[in-house]
Write a structure and sequence with these properties.
Keywords: DNA-binding, Transcription, Transcription regulation. This is WYL domain-containing protein. InterPro entries: CBASS_pafABC_assoc_protein (IPR051534), DeoR_HTH (IPR001034), HTH_11 (IPR013196), PafC-like (IPR028349), Tscrpt_reg_HTH_DeoR_CS (IPR018356), WCX_dom (IPR057727), WH-like_DNA-bd_sf (IPR036388), WH_DNA-bd_sf (IPR036390). It holds the Pfam family HTH_11. Residues 4-59 form the HTH deoR-type domain. This protein has 317 residues and is an alpha+beta fold. It has 4 domains: 2-63, Orthogonal Bundle (Arc Repressor Mutant, subunit A); 76-124, no CATH class; 143-229, SH3 type barrels (Roll); 237-315, 2-Layer Sandwich (Alpha-Beta Plaits), CATH 3.30.70. The protein contains 11 helices and 11 strands. The chain has helices at 2-17, 23-30, 34-46, 76-89, 96-109, 112-124, 143-155, 222-233, 247-251, 278-285, 300-315; strands at 51-54, 60-63, 159-163, 166-178, 181-187, 194-198, 202-204, 237-243, 259-265, 268-275, 292-296. The strands form 3 sheets. The chain has a 5-stranded antiparallel β-sheet. Helix 4 runs parallel beside helix 6 and helix 10 packs across helix 11 (300-315).
Length: 317
Amino acid sequence: MADTTGRLLALLALLQSRPTWTGTELAARLGVTSRTIRNDIDRMRELGYPVETTRGTTGGYRLGAGGKLPPLLLDDEEAVAVAVGLRAATGITGIMESSARALAKLQQVLPPRLRSTVAALSSVVDRAPENTGTDAPDPEVDHTVLTAVATAVRKVELLRFDYRGAARLVEPYRLLSWERRWHLVARDPSSGEWDTFRADWIEPRMPTGRSFPPTPLAGGDYTAFAMRSIATSGWTVHARLRVAAPAEAVLARINPAVGVVESITDTESVLVTGADSLETIAAYIGMLGMDFTVESPAELRPHLRHLAEVYLRAAAD
């Protein structure tokens, strides 16, 4: 299937490059038989491409009206899946406009039999608010940042960027999308330490063009590592709380990405957690249902007192 798809792409490129080709010429260029070319032409027509047969002493093929379009060699399920994915991506801050443009272009090149299906999906699918877990606005990620990071990951090249006022040089390994945010999992080549970086805080510099020998991550699970490290470095604000409960009990109540737990004694632990605002931390920490004290920052305490007063008034007879 992969060879057939690649040949169809090459065939489409040839048909787009000049007005008319004979079957013999196409077969010679692609290194196949004339019968294979005829079968490939039939397949392209099934996919909705207007390939016409020309008359003459030798005959040939040409693209009809609407044929000079980007290739879409997808079956029905694949085309609908791509359209639905692009529709969902229109709700991701930073790339929503690009996703909307791509969806519009996809609809233009869809075979006629699929346009009504995709149009129906687009017209009846609504989106609910994405940001329901914090009072902070969604972060904006420039598509050029994602492109620069993804390119460095694909090429296995060192990535240089500015990050919250500091210059960084890292070995990039993975991009993770989580909670409307993009994160880069990378390794410092000097110290050997692994870390996770928020993409909306990354300001790429010129490409280094320097390759590096990849180093396996212990355990091999980049997503699990990122979810753990985001708790301590991937949020706008962080808090350190001493909880009157064993570490196992606290871990059972939280998502790994929103907190790191350190055991102090059999009955006490420290929770390091983060969010996009102190108000969000104050609201969610109450869901632990456990006694705790704030070690830092002191600015969190007024938010806790405010919520405590609100709850007391609501609970009053």
